[in-house]
Write a structure and sequence with these properties.
By secondary structure, this protein is mainly beta. The chain contains three helices and ten strands. Strands 2, 3, 5, 6, 8 and 9 form a six-stranded antiparallel sheet that branches. The longest helix has 6 residues, at about 15-20. The two termini are about 15 Å apart.
Length: about 140
């Protein structure tokens, strides 16, 4: 599968061992499962560190449940906002992957071959549910 070939590192939110291995931290978070996949969301924030020892990262891919709506949050990588997300529910009852390109500045801020990915809820809202987080290299 193309996604597996391009993946540098990935974490399954809401699963204990993968979260421990990726330095999970968070405030006011919850986890659960939906249609056989684990998720995590927060009314505060949560974060992981994904490995990129070869400096190959190009894209951050996040998996969502397409029917989630009314949620507003930001995604930060290495302390810089890479996306402001508002879920609408218009993609329906299915899993959806969204790719966020990573700028040279964001990538240059990596520490020790790792990228810190942080999900921050807007005031009065929820960040997530997040079903998958992966760093991808350029195709080719």
């Amino acid at each position: 599968m193309e996604q597996e070939r391009l993946t540098i590192d990935a974490v399954a939110p809401g699963e204990q061992q993968p979260e421990v291995e990726h330095d999970f931290e968070g405030v006011d978070t919850e986890a659960g499962s939906n249609f056989g996949r684990h998720w995590r969301h927060t009314s505060g924030w949560f974060a992981y560190t994904l490995s990129d020892p070869g400096g190959e990262a190009h894209v951050l891919r996040i998996d969502y449940w397409g029917a989630d709506s009314g949620r507003k949050f930001t995604i930060e990588v290495n302390g810089m906002i890479v996306a402001e997300v508002t879920s609408t529910g218009k993609q329906g009852a299915r899993f959806v992957s969204v790719d966020y390109p990573l700028s040279v500045e964001v990538l240059a801020a990596a520490k020790d071959g790792g990228h810190r990915i942080r999900f921050v809820a807007a005031e009065g809202s929820i960040a997530g549910g997040i079903y998958g987080v992966r760093l991808l290299r350029k195709p080719g």
